[in-house]
Amino acid sequence: MNHDLENHPGWKASTFEGSELHSLLLGLETTLREKIIWNEEMQKLQDRFAKNQDQIYRSEKRAETA
What is the span of the domain harbouring residue 6? Predict the structure, then answer.
């Protein structure tokens, strides 16, 4: 393997330990404001998933009774 590729950070981040370290480092570099914004966006996404799941469930129930 090419030594330049072998020492590339992308290869190290593709292992479990490397991925965990990358996540920890990213958390240290992220500001509290960025974390709050990200958390709010994830909450909105979770709400949309729940709403879509509820719509699918209701449409399946209507199809069963029809």
Answer: 1-30
| Contact (CB, 8 A) for 19 and 13 | yes
How confident is the model over 4-19, as pLDDT tens digits?
A: 666 776 777 778 888 8
CA dist., res. 44 & res. 53, Å (int): 14
18-57 pLDDT, tens digit each: 888 888 988 899 999 999 999 999 999 999 999 999 999 9
With DSSP H G I counted as helix, E B as strand and the rest as coil, what are the percentages for the chain, rounded to 5?
A: 85, 0, 15
- Count of structural domains, the chain: 2
SS3 29: helix
10 and 22, same structural domain?
yes
